[in-house]
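Hi V.,

Quick status before I head out on leave. The structure for the redesign project is tokenized and pasted below; the design run finished overnight.
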């Protein structure tokens, strides 16, 4: 049941993002995250209860499936069309970013301004890491394409 609810939240976010014309990928990712994790107290309480189910021994596989689907849905909502290693690295990067954002949202998501600022800082961190890699010659995608 919790996995189906998570999927419904993903589809709702995808629907809301259909008419997005933001040119920057990072801003589309930001918008998708903010739509996926709204400042709605009822949604946060439901997510907290759902996480209790996901973290049980029987729920961990469902949690992994839901997490991967959500990360993929965010990239789909952001209209990312990467392939190959870039596809994988972007999803891994977003998976980590989304973990920190999700935990912040669970604990302090009712403060929408604080939450948005936290999301912005996490996205800026990813861009900064991409720029550092490029500076030191580490093979990677362009910084703007890593987080958007």
């Amino acid at each position: 049941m919790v996995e189906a609810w998570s999927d419904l939240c993903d589809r709702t976010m995808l629907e809301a993002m259909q008419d997005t014309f933001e040119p920057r990928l990072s801003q589309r990712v930001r918008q998708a995250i903010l739509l996926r994790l709204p400042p709605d107290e009822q949604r946060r309480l439901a997510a907290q209860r759902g996480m209790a189910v996901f973290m049980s021994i029987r729920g961990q596989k469902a949690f992994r499936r839901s997490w991967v689907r959500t990360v993929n849905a965010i990239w789909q909502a952001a209209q990312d069309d990467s392939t190959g290693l870039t596809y994988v690295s972007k999803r891994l990067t977003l998976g980590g970013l989304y973990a920190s954002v999700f935990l912040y949202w669970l604990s302090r998501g009712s403060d929408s301004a604080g939450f948005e600022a936290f999301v912005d800082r996490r996205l800026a961190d990813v861009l900064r890491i991409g720029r550092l890699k490029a500076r030191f010659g580490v093979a990677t995608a362009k910084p703007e394409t890593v987080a958007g």
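Above is the designed sequence. Residues 84-108 form the longest helix (25 residues).

G. will cover questions while I'm gone.

Best,
W.
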